[in-house]
């Protein structure tokens, strides 16, 4: 099977790594990819949001499957163009991707499908936003209706901060606050059926103790020893399948990963958000544990042959990923600084590095090219061992001004239910 992965981040490096390990994959390509994917795939420099350029590349390569990573590529209609050209594509069409691209549309789908979620108001004016903030009270949850690269959500007890964020958005969704820990669940969908992957938990705040601004994600781990063994079946029955069914009823078949961000509240499971693709950095740990070959599974979704009774197999043990972020991330990440110590980090037993925001520099050096620069993945028979591997490897990496959280999976590794 010839596979093309679209995107350039840590999620795409994780996808490429999993596909590279699949024996049915005879040729692996990434566009544009990064220095990490270049070690296991052929990189192609193009704009992955350009439907024409992507389709021409896929046809020239004779791709049997195109896997779309970032949400912006989906919203650009790349999946639509590939399907029109007869190229199997894992990733929803532009219409189905609205479940992430518009928070208001996602709420509409959830309401129609009976999916449990937070009460919310969609606001088009400042007056409506202020009225909604009054109605829900603190902590205030304010979401930009459109895509915002994982940074469009503000959760704050400060009314002025909430009002400023609402005013900065063309359209805004204001919700009630959901208590309880959050869980990410990916489901692979073929337009009709859906199959779950392992639940994971990510860490959105920039600093230890869930302090600081929201980010795209500073780390993740799986499995979650503190959740109910029935949670996945419950979510598939009450959240994922109803949403897929509602989209199909509207003649918007959903093909790809449906990411359900969940809050385990005192009143039960509630959906925080839907995303239309693999989450980042949860993908990095979920795919690490996946024993079932990935390519055939994704192709089955792309061509409509997913067995709804199928359940993937998983490697025993745990995985933890720690994001090494550039100085100034998430507000104004500094780019261009040299990264060293990767060879030393890779020598840590049970650890490896995924590139997220890197590029080649002068004289063969590797430099930072984004906010989230590297994902350091640690594995082991349990979360404590996986954490030690990840943090030991991270300690060997040097990047001026970089920062990372030191508490990823700490509570779970010590059998404390996350708050």
UniProtKB/TrEMBL annotation:
One of its GO terms (molecular function) is phosphoribosylamine-glycine ligase activity. It is an enzyme of class 6 (ligase). Residues 107-303 form the ATP-grasp domain. Its cofactor is Mn(2+); Mg(2+). Keywords: ATP-binding, Ligase, Nucleotide-binding, Purine biosynthesis. Its EC number is 6.3.4.13. Pfam families: GARS_A, GARS_C, GARS_N. It comes from the Bacteria. Pathway: Purine metabolism; IMP biosynthesis via de novo pathway; N(1)-(5-phospho-D-ribosyl)glycinamide from 5-phospho-alpha-D-ribose 1-diphosphate: step 2/2. It catalyses: 5-phospho-beta-D-ribosylamine + glycine + ATP = N(1)-(5-phospho-beta-D-ribosyl)glycinamide + ADP + phosphate + H(+). Belongs to the GARS family. This is Phosphoribosylamine--glycine ligase.
């Amino acid at each position: 099977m010839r596979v093309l992965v679209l995107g350039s981040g840590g999620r795409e490096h994780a996808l490429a790594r999993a596909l590279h390990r699949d024996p049915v994959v005879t040729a692996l390509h990434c566009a544009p990819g990064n220095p990490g994917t270049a070690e296991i795939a052929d990189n192609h420099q193009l704009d992955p949001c350009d439907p024409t350029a992507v389709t021409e590349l896929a046809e020239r390569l004779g791709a049997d499957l195109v896997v779309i990573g970032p949400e912006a590529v989906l919203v650009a209609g790349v999946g639509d163009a590939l399907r029109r050209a007869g190229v199997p594509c894992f990733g929803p069409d532009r219409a189905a991707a609205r479940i992430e691209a518009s928070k208001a549309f996602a709420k509409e789908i959830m309401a129609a499908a009976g999916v449990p979620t937070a009460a919310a108001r969609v606001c088009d004016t400042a007056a409506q936003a202020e009225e909604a903030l009054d109605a829900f009270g603190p902590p205030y949850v304010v979401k930009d209706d459109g895509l915002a690269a994982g940074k469009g959500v503000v959760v704050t007890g400060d009314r002025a901060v909430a009002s400023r964020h609402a005013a900065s958005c063309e359209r805004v969704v204001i919700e009630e606050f959901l208590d309880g820990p959050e869980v990410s669940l990916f489901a692979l969908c073929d337009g009709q059926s859906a199959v779950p992957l392992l639940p994971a938990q990510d860490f959105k705040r920039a600093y230890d103790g869930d302090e600081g601004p929201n980010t795209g994600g500073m780390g993740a781990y799986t499995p979650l020893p503190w959740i109910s063994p029935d949670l996945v079946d419950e979510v598939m029955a009450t959240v994922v399948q109803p949403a897929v069914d509602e989209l199909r009823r509207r003649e918007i078949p959903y093909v790809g990963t449906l990411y359900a961000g969940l809050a385990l509240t005192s009143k039960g499971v509630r959906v925080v958000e839907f995303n239309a693709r693999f989450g980042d950095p949860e993908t990095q740990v979920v795919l690490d544990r996946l024993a079932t070959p990935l390519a055939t599974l994704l192709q089955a979704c792309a061509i409509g042959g997913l067995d709804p009774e199928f359940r993937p197999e998983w490697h025993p043990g745990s995985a933890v990923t720690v994001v090494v972020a550039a100085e100034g991330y998430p507000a104004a990440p500094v780019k261009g600084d040299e990264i060293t110590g990767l060879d030393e980090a890779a020598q840590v037993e049970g650890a490896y590095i995924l590139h997220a925001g890197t590029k080649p520099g002068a004289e063969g050096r590797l430099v930072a090219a984004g906010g989230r620069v590297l994902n350091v993945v640690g594995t082991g028979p349990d979360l404590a061992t996986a954490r030690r591997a990840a943090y030991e490897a991270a300690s060997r990496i040097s990047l001026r001004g970089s920062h990372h959280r030191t508490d990823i999976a700490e509570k779970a590794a010590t059998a404390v239910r996350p708050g």
